[in-house]
Amino acid sequence: MFGLANPDRFLRFTRPLTPVLWVVAGVLLAAASWLAFAAPEDYQQGDTVRIMFVHVPAASLGLMAYGALGVSSFFALVFRHALADAAARAAALPGAAFTGLALVTGSLWGKPMWGAWWAWGDARLMSVLILFLFYLGYMALRASIDDEQKAARAAAVLGLVGLVNLPIVKFSVDWWNTLHQPASLLRAGGPSLTGEFLTPLLTMMAAWAALFLALWLTAIRTEIVRRRVLAIRTRRALEA
Questions:
Q1: Which residues lie across from 42 on neighbouring strands?
Q2: Where is the Cytochrome c assembly protein domain (predicted)?
Q3: 195, pLDDT greater than 80
Q4: What's the pLDDT score for residue 39?
Q5: 3, 5, 67, 226: which has the fewest C-beta neighbours closer than 10 Å?
Q6: 194: pLDDT strictly greater than 70
């Protein structure tokens, strides 16, 4: 793992891996979509239950991406490793997209279930909104500082602070009385979903996980190349 911290080794290792992840993500997405549409209607929610197959993976990947951003920020801040900083920066945009999608699909799901698009008093909704704002703040902070090293340090601190919100998002429905339903997958008694809903949901979550990894690795590789091109241009400008 630490050997891959070298940018050259990382590029060599991920060159064949990245297209494989894209193919796996595409195949799993196609299979999961077919399973989701083939699943029966829920006896209470009807066809609205199919929003689950988008909402749950999006919310899970929003947390996963921020975890990757936060851990990468730690290594970038403590060990001043350029590849860790590139990994943190690369996780921000897809993580924000997944979290934003979770908020939108949650509102679409909440309207027929709760009778409202949004519930300000729901701890899960508010903590996910705060997670989304951390993503936006991270990207805005990096874009607002011209010096890349200063921007990286400031963004890394913000990324670490945002990690505090992850357990709040996860356990908010257990700690407070909220409208949001409790966990359906990771629970003491096992998943509460029947197989006809559990199989497409797990397949979709695996597909989105592969998609995030493909996006993340591609973005890291692009960031490495961008920094190298920038360094070459800067050196040539100084020589000129």
A1: 46
A2: 20-180
A3: no
A4: 81
A5: 3
A6: no
* Distance (Å) of CA 79 to CA 75, 153, 210, 225: 5, 11, 28, 21
Is the residue at 6 inside a domain?
Answer: no
CB-based burial, 102-134: b 16+ in 10 Å, e otherwise: bbebbbebbeeeeeeeebeebbbbbbbbebbeb
Max distance between CA atoms of the chain, in angstroms, equals: 72
Helix (H) or strand (E) run with residue 50 in it: none
What's the angle, vertex CA 233, arms to CA 228 and CA 234, rounded to 5? 95
* Dihedral Cα 74, 94, 200, 181, nearest 10 deg: 70
Give domain status of residue 96, yes or no: yes
What is the span of the domain harbouring residue 232?
Answer: 17-38+45-175+193-239
**Residues in Cβ contact with 36 at an 8 Å cutoff, skipping those fewer than 6 apart:** 50, 53, 200, 204
Q: State phi, psi for 22 to the nearest 5 degrees.
A: -65, -40
User: Can you give the three-state secondary structure of 60-78, one letter per residue?
Assistant: HHHHHHHHHHHHHHHHHHH
Closest by CA to 153, choosing from 78, 237, 240, is 78
